[in-house]
């Protein structure tokens, strides 16, 4: 896969392995965001925290506010035999307040845990992602390869697509923040 790393406003870490649920991407996001915060950058938004799997059940999903540590559950317990999606749109809606606050606070970099099934259909955090980008705030998210076409449609093809590679992610963040300082 060829990656486009040039956009200074929108970027997605792309992962392919559905089995890992993007855990490698989430670890990179967490590492880079915490490093940027230690450097004094105002980073706001949500990162996805992975909860250990309970025997016979899908693992619960939760997101964490990067600035306060508040945890939001974004999955429903659909039962041990469930094979379908357990994402809770209500939980995502509750967590979206974090991105609206990041916009109001004009953070230096905003993070959204996923551009996933909901966002691919214009729901979930799509409005918040668009509002942040329109305000000139760099936005970083994570996208599964199966949602890559929807990501490209959402960004008009202008969103960066990054590999799961810490130096590439760090470089994109540095360019995005430098671009933000110039704005």
Structure description:
The termini are far apart. The radius of gyration is 15 Å and the shape is globular. A hairpin with a 5-residue loop joins strand 3 (61-65) and strand 4. The chain has a single domain (10-182), classed as P-loop containing nucleotide triphosphate hydrolases (Rossmann fold, 3-Layer(aba) Sandwich). The mean pLDDT is 86. It has helices at 23-38, 89-104, 117-120, 126-134, 148-155, 166-182, and strands at residues 10-15, 43-50, 61-65, 71-73, 109-111, 139-144, 160-162. By secondary structure, it is an alpha/beta fold. Helix 2 packs parallel to helix 4.
Can you tag this structure with a few keywords?
single chain, 183 residues, alpha/beta, Rossmann fold, 6 helices, globular
Q: Count the domains.
A: 1
On the 0 to 100 scale, the average pLDDT is 86
Number of helices: 6
**Overall geometric form:** globular
Spatial order of the strands in the main sheet?
4-3-2-5-6-1-7
CATH topology name = Rossmann fold
Main sheet properties: 7 strands, mixed
Identify the CATH class: Alpha Beta
CATH-level-2 architecture: 3-Layer(aba) Sandwich
The helix content, as a percent range, equals 25-40%
Strand content: 15-25%
CATH homologous superfamily assignment: P-loop containing nucleotide triphosphate hydrolases
Low-confidence runs (pLDDT<50, min 5 residues)? Answer: none
Oligomeric state of the chains present here = single chain
Look at the helices and sheets and give the structural class. alpha/beta
Count of extended strands: 7
Q: How big is the Rg?
A: 15 Å
């Amino acid at each position: 896969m060829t990656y486009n790393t040039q956009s200074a406003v929108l970027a997605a870490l792309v992962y392919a392995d559905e089995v890992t649920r993007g855990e490698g991407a989430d670890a990179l996001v967490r590492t880079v965001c915490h490093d940027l915060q230690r450097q004094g950058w105002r980073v706001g938004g949500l990162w996805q925290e992975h909860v250990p799997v309970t025997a016979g059940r899908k693992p619960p999903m939760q997101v964490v506010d990067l600035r306060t540590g508040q945890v939001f559950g974004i999955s429903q317990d659909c039962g041990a035999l469930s094979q379908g999606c357990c994402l809770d749109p209500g939980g995502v809606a509750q967590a979206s307040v974090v991105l609206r606050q990041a916009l109001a606070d004009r953070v230096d970099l905003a993070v959204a845990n996923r551009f996933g099934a909901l966002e691919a259909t214009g729901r979930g955090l799509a409005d918040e992602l668009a509002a942040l980008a329109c305000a000139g705030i760099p936005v970083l998210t994570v996208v599964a390869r199966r949602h890559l076409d929807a990501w490209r449609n959402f960004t008009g093809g202008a969103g960066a697509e990054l590999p799961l590679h810490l130096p590439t992610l760090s470089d994109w963040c540095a360019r995005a923040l430098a671009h933000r300082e110039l704005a």
